[in-house]
Records
---
Amino acid sequence: MIEINHLYKEYGKDVQALNDINLVIDRGEFVFIVGTSGAGKSTLLRMMIRESLPTKGSIKIFGRDITRLKNREVPYLRRNIGVVFQDFRLLNDRNVYENVAFTLRVIGSPTKEIRKRVPHALELVRLKDKAYKKPDQLSGGEQQRVCVARALVNRPAVLLADEPTGNLDPGTSMEIMNLLHDINIRGATVIVATHAKEVVDHFQKRVVVLEDGRLISDQERGVYFNAH
């Protein structure tokens, strides 16, 4: 499903964010991408949604090299990829329901479909009773659950999560990760960039380790690994 070949990303002449990354992720996998801050985790995820282009190399998703997509084609790629951000990126002037519905409105989903899908997504993340609350009326964990609902409401084939537990306490972090695990069981390919050792060790999924922009380890049923 995702095939990354000889991927490089340079910022200027001196900063090499990614260095010759080669990675294949099959449909339905759950993969942790781990490494310290600055290892290249977020850069790699941004490239998977075409938020950033590589200096060299290719990323094939659903059989197409997304680095070669025309700008007008990028929104169609993103319809099939849900994203959960560490900093939530919620619309503070809209309630929970509208934050989740926004994803569907952007792609022109009919109102009838929105009215069906949004409550279902909120039920999956156990927030149906908070549908008409504003983000600032929710806890950090609840706001992140809204982000998960927003990411999955369009039933994406791939869900990317960039440090989804970075701003949460350990108990809430495990709740969010259990949600992502459930989404994976339902059929989505889930890729989580994190440096949360306890989360990685608990789930023992495939673990890809980045260090200084290089892929240094790739283990099935792995645990958190730090070369230092």
---
Amino acid sequence: MGQDTPTDIAKKDLPKEAKCLLCPNDGPEKPAGGLMYKGNAYYFCNTKEIAAFKKDPDAYVPPVLPRPVPEFALVDTTGKTWDAESMKGKLVLVDFWATWCAPCKAMMPMLDKLHARYKEKGFEILSVSIDEKQPNLDKFLKGHKFPNPVLHDDQRTWQKWGVKNIPAMFLVRDGQIIAQWTGKQTEKTLEAGISANLPK
């Protein structure tokens, strides 16, 4: 068991290249700094991220899976409330996104395909917008039709779920988060998680 307080890795001990903990999809890059925490080394592409990690390290380290679903009770655009009870019996991808997030919007056609492919097998996607202003979401929805429920996170649910960057996707079954992804993902990656966990 390593130390429970993050400690700086000396500049001379930093690798020439490493994956940033918060930007894993960007590939290896020259780290701005690194920290040791609970026996593991974590690297960051800018120093602001290091300060944030030190304040709440457990919010950043790789997640424990499976784990119970945090508090969730939001209303979709049809007026239906989605909570732990309404997710029972389904495999649900909870997708936190925003109208200003380019990677989120780039993934939408792929998510639509996955939804169509697995909907009849008990799969659902909840597109949870973290936009602060309702009019921004309303305007976007006029030009983009979702085949799945869209919810506006007006309760800052994303904080309870530990979202630090979007897109952030959580695969939920039987009240448990069984997989999660941050950043732009490939269809192959998401489909592997979905197909392996469909309700029997």
---
Amino acid sequence: MDFQTLAAQRYSLRKFSDRPVEEEKLTAILEAGRVGPTAHNLQPQRIFVMRSAEAQAKTDACMGFHFHAPLLLVVAYDPEAAWKREIDGKNHGEIDAAIAVSQMMLQAADLGLGTTFVGVFDPEKLVAAFPEELGTLRPIAVLPLGYPAEGAHPARLHGERKPLEELVKVL
């Protein structure tokens, strides 16, 4: 599939099947997150695969929405490892992690899997649930990952987009 089609057709999947994600597909998705560009190539993103029932339940307890996907990916960044803009000290770790998330979502879609970017979670509660793993990291997203369930479809507003002229200004 060409990129324009992939980008337009990818949607936030909210209804997952029980079909497990093959290890080679998971590896390809994680690799897509690993190779994403980061400020000064510092690679502060950290990705956690919540595979066990215990890890999934602990993660799910921190989220405002529940999708019952076969896997959950938690994406975080290390603020100490991230580049800070010299002018104002802005930490680019969240941006770098968000780029990794975007690449993983597109790779998943290309492989026939679905994701949704879940930002409705309690980051402090998530860190407290996994203190050894997350420690001083800052989680930015939880990605439910899996195959679409029968009847899954994009949300009603998925195809509604503002015209390019409203979003882009050429100066």
---
Amino acid sequence: MIAKVDRLSGLHAGPPRTGFLTLLKFLIVDDLVRPRMIRSLVHSLGLHRDVEHRLTGVIRTRHTLHRRIVVLENVRRLFHYWHVIHVPFSIVMFVILFIHVGVAVAFGYTWVF
């Protein structure tokens, strides 16, 4: 039954690899569509009201977890690129720091106090 619910709600697919604006659009549209989609999905199964209520909670939880996976995967990719760009800059800054200290010591600068 869970496999059927996942298939009908679109949770069987892996997280989409998207850009930031596409991800933002996905999140906004998902917020608007998700409640109606879950209600119609659970109602179409024709279960008792108590079971329907518990199943709705399970579907919401699974959908929220899937959504977090999508967001975290895209944020992980974004931070990978941030790391690729910033590590060389930090190395260059440390080289500049050592050159600056070396030049200051070579010219005989001392503490002001």
